[in-house]
Amino acid sequence: MTKISSGYSNLDRILNGGFECPSLVTICSRSSMGKTNLALNLSEIFSSQMIDHVYVSYAETYEQLLDKSNICCRVLNELGNIGEKIIIIDYMQLVVDGYDECISSFLHNLKKDSFLLNQCVILLCQIDSNLIDKRQGHRPKISDLPEGVESYSDQIFLLHRRDFYDSMDKPGIAELILVKNRFGKIGTCELTYDSEELKFLDYTPMRQKPTSV
Q1: Which sequence spans correspond to the domains of the chain?
Q2: What is the pLDDT of residues 118-146, one digit of tens each?
Q3: Whole-number Å distance between alpha carbons of 176 and 160
Q4: DSSP letter string over the chain?
Q5: Is 119 exposed, middle or buried (0-12, 13-18, 19+ CB in 10 A)?
Q6: Nearest to 38 by CA among 28, 23, 24, 48
Q7: CA gyration radius, the chain
Q8: pLDDT tens readout for residues 47-102
Q9: What is the pTM of this model?
Q10: What does CATH list as the number for 2-202?
């Protein structure tokens, strides 16, 4: 298998070097957590690393997508090019109907094609906010995912920002929780989220100054 760096050192650490090719990676969250922004950031990183990839967006119009990112128009125009190593799809529920059998069939074919073409597919998936917002702590769970996602995904990330619910609770910090990893261990990666620039950045904890005795 081929490893492709995510561009985030904290994320690469829990991925043991980067995304696997071939694989199906699913990034899930409720709406407004920043799934699309994270996917666009990853696409920008892949472009800077000269990694061939395609960003497929059903969530934004072409004009909106260009406004949100400096991604080269080539990424959108080369949709369907089987030579690309990474395919980012934004997002699953806008591609298939919400019926379990439709989702399972879509995921089955997506994973089959990714292995045949030796590609890493990064699929965004929406979680019903009603399942999370009434829960104490508002943390997403793997059981919140639509039927079939857990079975077919090689890796599943849950994106969570505490400051979405309480601006004083870990402000500017996003948690990317790896809850399934067919290739190794699970864990949590913390990223810094700049809500003004819509950017996810590597998180570096501030070191406290030693207290004088």
Answers
A1: 2-202
A2: 889 999 999 988 888 888 889 999 999 98
A3: 7
A4: -EEE--S-HHHHHHTTTSEEESEEEEEEE-TTSSHHHHHHHHHHHHHHTT--EEEEESSS-HHHHHHH----HHHHHTTT-TT-SEEEEE-GGGTS-S-HHHHHHHHHHHHHHHHHTT-EEEEEEE--HHHHHTSTT----GGGSPTTHHHH-SEEEEEE-GGGT-TTSSTTEEEEEEEEETTS--EEEEEEEETTTTEEEE--PPPPPPPP-
A5: buried
A6: 28
A7: 17
A8: 999 888 888 886 655 555 555 444 334 433 444 455 568 999 888 877 776 666 77
A9: 0.84
A10: 3.40.50.300
Q: Beta partners for 187?
A: 178
- Burial degree of 114 (CB within 10 A; 0-12, 13-18, 19+): buried
β-bridge mates for residue 155, sequence order: 25, 181
Give the number of residues written for the chain: 213
Contact residues for 164 (Cβ-Cβ < 8 A; gap 6+): 32, 33, 138
Angle at 30 between CA 27 and CA 31, to 5 degrees: 105
